[in-house]
Design goal:
Elements: E1 3-5, E2 19-27, E3 44-52, E4 60-69, E5 79-87, E6 91-96, E7 113-118, E8 121-122, E9 127-128, E10 172-173, E11 176-177, H1 212-217, E12 229-230, E13 233-234, E14 255-256, E15 259-260, E16 267-269, E17 272-274, E18 295-296, E19 303-308, E20 314-316, E21 323-326, E22 333-338, E23 344-346, E24 353-358, E25 363-368, E26 374-378, E27 383-388, E28 393-398, E29 403-408, E30 413-418, E31 424-428, E32 433-438, E33 443-446, E34 454-456, E35 463-466, E36 482-487, E37 492-497, E38 502-504, E39 513-520, E40 532-535, E41 542-545, E42 554-558, E43 564-566, E44 578-592, E45 603-606, E46 613-615, E47 624-628, E48 636-644
Parallel strand pairs: 18-21, 19-22, 20-23, 21-24, 22-25, 23-26, 24-27, 25-28, 26-29, 27-30, 28-31, 29-32, 30-33, 31-34, 32-35, 39-41, 39-43, 44-46
Antiparallel strand pairs: 1-38, 2-3, 3-6, 4-5, 4-7, 7-8, 7-9, 10-11, 12-13, 14-15, 16-17, 36-37, 37-38, 39-44, 40-41, 40-42, 42-44, 44-48, 45-46, 45-47, 47-48
Amino acid sequence: MKKIMKNKRLIGVVAAVVLVAALLTSGVIATPPAAAGDPVIARINYQGQLTDGQGNPLDGTYNMEFRVYDVELGGAALWSEPQAVAVVNSLFSVQLGQYVSFPADLFDGSDRYLEIVVNGEVLQPRQRLISIPYAIKAEKANDADTLDGLDSSAFLSTGQDWGRSGVASNLYEGTTKLTNRYVNEGQMDSITSAMIANHAVSSDHLDDGAAIGEILDDDGAGSGLDADTLDGLNSSAFLSTGQDWGRSGVASNLYEGTSTLSDKYVNQSGDGMTGSSSSAVLSVTNSGSGPGGEFNSSGGDGVYVDSADRYGLHVASATSSGVRVYSAGGDGVSVYSAGSNGFYVEHAQHSGLNIFDARTDAINVQNAGHNGFYIAHADYTGVYVGSTGLDGIRVANASSCGVRVYSAGHDGVRVEDAGGYGFQVDSASQSGVHVSSAGHDGVRIEDANWSGVYVADAGGDALRVQNAGQDGLRIFNGVGRDYIRAGSDADVDFKVTNTGAAYADGGWQGAADFAELMSTEGITEDYQPGDVLVISDEQDRAVQLSSRPYSSAVIGVYSEEPGFLGSPHVMEDQNGDELPVAVLGIVPCKVSAENGPVHRGDLLTTSSTPGHAMKATEMKLGTMLGKALGELESGTGVIDILVTLQ
């Protein structure tokens, strides 16, 4: 029989009273005009109205914190200031920046949003600040008629002759006339032709190529140049008549030793390259900053490897992406029948593999002798795929992991806008997908037309994520069918639907108790796990501590880690005054020996010790909490009990 259960977790506690702040006005306080040079007071006058959740005005002193952000939601505060604010008939007025100065570049013209926290509660939404706070930058206008605080007269020297009629006749550097220090045509220190005679100007006086024009102009029999020799040798010195080097410019039979090169190395046919070798057919070692190999706008596959004895494609220590393919007409990268890893990239400073805009599969690896796809030590994304016509990544028949990413600085695998599956692995002997030590998401799939991740016939884990800095697996913004689905379409063993309902054929292993999320009377933080609770006298669907023997209002025990958690609302709407109340199952409970020692199997009821159960010696219907699973000889303590209300 299939079982269905809403499984929600308790979130953080917030204040019980809901506060609403309404912006009345925001601006700079009007003050008398400042004298020239006076600093502008960098503060903002802020007035508001504070009411409770029903709109009733509030009075008193409240601890408020004012924060400025550069985004409407999330992000980190650029500035914050706490203040104790007096509220009179719901109205208050403060000066922002009175205690904590604004950073000089806070109001630089970019969007800024004000967030207010009242007694620990964040009020929503944030309020966008308009032009007035940015007027703080007008402080610089006090100095608009000066240069570094000096008037223009400070830069005028009447004691020097700066020239007449636009011609400088007497210029000075310090106390020395420039005419006495620098060359003047027709003067004693002027340059003459004798100064630039042969050998007077050496090579270190000339820029590279400065003399080329003169040398070429004088080229001829007497120039010393001989264009028909190479290193002083005539072309006949390089001709070997014993070998056939080709006829009419076409090499018909080239040799290395006794073997023709056409049998050993790459042959060009049209625009393609073919060849066979016991080692790499194409090997590139690049000591510069450019790519080892680059494929742009390929009409077919970007990279295609068929039947390699070892690696299909191997890249080590790339300063940017290990392999980058852009706009491939077929597969971005296709590897077929590799003896070892189908794809191997190690130590890439950016993405291990970056593929964008492939017409069919971005990555297609089949029949790999080891890992279908292996990325180690990428500083950014291990594998990045964007905008594919079919699957983002597809691996079939890998004898080890379908895809393995180790130590990625950002996402282990990221796929965006896949026309088919975001990630598909068929028949991997070990893990279908294995991500270890990802700085961000282990696997991230966005906007796949089919399944986000699809794994079939994995010999080990279908999906394995180890040491992820954030989410190992996160499903965001809903899916077309189920969040998680295991088993065949005809017989599903486990699934979590896109409405949050969970189904499991095998039941729920390890669960100890079933709890309901209920509100509390008083301060929720004063309650402790193990407290015995009774139905509230004042509120609906609420609890309070038990405080008298044989209470017929007993309802359960405060459970710290419930196996199942029921709730009247979704997780996002949980209130800060709620806690899980175990109403069935095994849970730790506070007990007292005030009615005699407690032994295993004893019926338990409420006691006069607040929040504690005691041994029941009278059988009163409706007052039994459960049965003791442990023992307490004296005093008070905590034992496991089976909650069975009766």
